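subagent[fold] <- orchestrator: predict structure for attached chain, return tokens only, no commentary.
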Amino acid sequence: MLGNKILKSALFVSMLALAAVSFQASAACNLVSTKDGSPFKIKAVDTDTPEAKTFLETCKNPYTAKYAADPEAAKAGRKVMTFNGCTGCHGGNLGGLMAPSLVKNGGTGAFDTKWVYEKNATDKGMFETIAEGTPGTSGGTMFIWHNQLEGHTGDGLTTDEILKAIGYIRTVYKGDGEKTWLK
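subagent[fold] -> orchestrator:
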């Protein structure tokens, strides 16, 4: 009788654990291409930071709030932007050159006061845009940057590097729109 109860308890605990794993898998961040709306996958890898793994599970960028609270920490995101040539197109102060402004504080370009892709108002949307590139709505296409995606630029960027860049972009934003990424 006691053995039967232990067996039932073990079976029940196993079912709970299986349900938790199943729930965890369904909580993954489902990424969608800015180019054509098709889904694409970025997988957590052994070298990912805890922040990258958190984002891939929740679609929430931990660096955004961290950099908003600590401008010194945001320099890590600026380093990613300058080292990988983002500033060559978006400008040294991210005010736009060949690519749109990322600070959104006005200007003469069509996209100097609003996001080219509305979804970039969220960290998930901006991650999708940077990771998989763009179709060229603003006049030129943006390359594929994530190192897990076929056709990426150079060595590509890791999930963590893209998240740091996004966190930095959020700190320099001067637009009058709501800062939805801090919610």
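orchestrator: received. Logging for downstream: The chain has one domain: 30-182. The CA atoms of residues 156 and 162 lie 10 Å apart.
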